[in-house]
Amino acid sequence: MSISTNHVVDKLIPSTGVLSIAGAYADLSKNIQVPSTGFSITIGNNVSTQILNPAGTLATGTLTMPAAPADGQQVFVCSSQVITALTVSPNTGQTIINAPTSIALGSGFGYIYDLASTTWFRLY
């Protein structure tokens, strides 16, 4: 995750690890793709938000999670269109819990990675 330089870090509380930001949060790691039916996208290690913006409803597609995620890394996926049959796969040596099988119009999902168990846990 990157924080844009026009944002002011209000305070960092070392004992708790809490970072307070005075201003808007900007995800500079976002990646926008315009897939077509039968797409296969591997989310980059440096991507927190994967945006899918196809021209219309897609019958099928596959997303693969990042190959070398950091412990606690979060990945969010959203789509501007319906994806009828979606496969969300872990990368080599990883496990994914409760992978979605489709995306409804304008919806998405999120995961957090646990390095100790090499598992992606679904947030929503």
* Gyration radius over CA: 16 Å
Subunit arrangement of the protein: single chain
**Shape, per Cα inertia axes:** globular
The tally of strands reads 11
Supply the CATH architecture. Answer: Sandwich
Helix percentage range: under 10%
Structural class by sheet pairing and helices: mainly beta
The first-to-last residue Cα distance is 20 Å
Strand fraction equals 35-45%
- Biggest beta sheet attributes: 6 strands, mixed
CATH topology: Jelly Rolls
Order of helices and strands: EEEEEEEEEEE
The whole-number mean of residue pLDDT values reads 90
Runs with pLDDT <50, length 5+?
Answer: none
- For the record, the count of structural domains works out to 1
Helical run tally:
0
- Any idea of the CATH class? Mainly Beta
Strands in their spatial order, largest beta sheet: 3-5-7-10-11-9
Tell me about this structure.
The structure is a single chain. With 124 residues, this protein is mainly β. It has one domain (28-122): Jelly Rolls (Sandwich). The chain is 0% helix and 44% strand. It contains no helices and eleven strands. It has strands at 8-13, 18-22, 31-33, 39-42, 49-52, 58-64, 74-79, 83-89, 95-96, 108-114, 119-122. The protein has a six-stranded mixed β-sheet, with no helix packed on it. A three-stranded parallel β-sheet has the order 4-6-8, with no helix packed on it. A hairpin with a 4-residue loop joins strand 1 and strand 2. The two termini are 20 Å apart.
